[in-house]
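**User:** My hope is that you can spare some time for a protein that puzzles me. I have put the entry right below:
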Amino acid sequence: MSSLNKPREPWVPRHERCHPVQKAYDVSFVHGYVAPGWESLAQVFADNFSKGELGASFCVVAGGQRVVDLWGGHVVTGGEPWDEDGMAVFYSCSKILTAMVIHRLVADGQMTYDAPLSKIWPELKAGQAGGTLRMALAHTLGLPVLQQRLRSGAYEDHDYMVGRLEQQSPLWEPGTRVGYHPITFGFILGELVRRTTGHTLGRYFNEQFAQPLGLDLYVGLPESLFPLLAPIHPYQPRREDPVRRIAKDSQTIGSIPNLWLYNSGGWRTESVNELAGVKAEMPASNGAGNARALASLLAVFLDDRKRLQLGFNDETTATLETVSAATHRDATLGCSSRFSLGLMKSMDNRHDPGADGFIIGRRAFGHVGMGGSFGFCDREAGIAVAYVMNQLGNGILVNDRGQALIDASYRAAGFERIGAGEWLPPMR
């Protein structure tokens, strides 16, 4: 394994770090450590391999240390075991990295949430119509998809996507409707970062976050690391699966789900298994890394000293914990959704068999990736949690494998119940 892919976490001084010492599992398919009191999570992680898991990593940071650090399974069925430092693409968990870049620039005074986007990007029609950075982060800008047919390889060409975004009129008056921006979110924010800093978002993240924290997280994977990336295995639908709302809505030609899934310039789920699909920067959807690194990134919000060193002030934290946009029917997802600026809040769609969910704490913030990966931080529970795998599950948001890990994490942290769609702390 290349030294570039070894876990490094200098943000916790070595002489202060308390390493978990209890071996959780060391069998043919699961390895790793858990700290006392967190043993139940190892069993849940292992049980997922009877629910279709192939290869995965899972990490929980609490109290300034990794209390759970597990990995297991295989890169391909019956093939090479999942390595301790193995990486995979985590799709829309990339928005965690992107949001942190934007909030850092706001805290630095280089961007403002409510200034018209036209001040930075004059050619953008959505900005000319009054669109702001706040709207772009909250998925209310009105550019969830592009209506003009995209040419082959569009997502791998940032400048081309910028041109198409500039020409696209918003699908609704900016700020008046919530509609998840699955892909365009990254190109919009990536261009704002490039115009503000002179650097691509991936380079800015690498220099300002990944390198200082010693984390193997990437938006735009270096070619030298491509051989270390576990290939993604798409979900194979089963006859007994409930009909997903996205799949049903996407059959309507010209609808937002239809344009999202089929006007992609030939990009498909497996495109990240090709070098071109991960080398190009797609800040909303092709980030790569492992659970250990993703949880450690989110854990900076549990450490006020490190949070301030990275340029995040108290307002940043409050913004991430606060719901900025919510709806009972998201224009893209077709179900209820809730967002803070740039990240997801708890989404409880258990009442809707055709929808997906992401049930976390009332103050927690994070994101999910297509097929089930996730990362979130909950300052109230004192945990940062991440899960990265290479066998996609059914649906767009978290599936039963991921939610089982989330639920076990909250129980181990002392939370007792889900109320009003969120995990809640014990009643006093």
Q: What stands out?
A: The two ends are 49 Å apart (CA to CA). Confidence is low (pLDDT under 50) at residues 1-22.
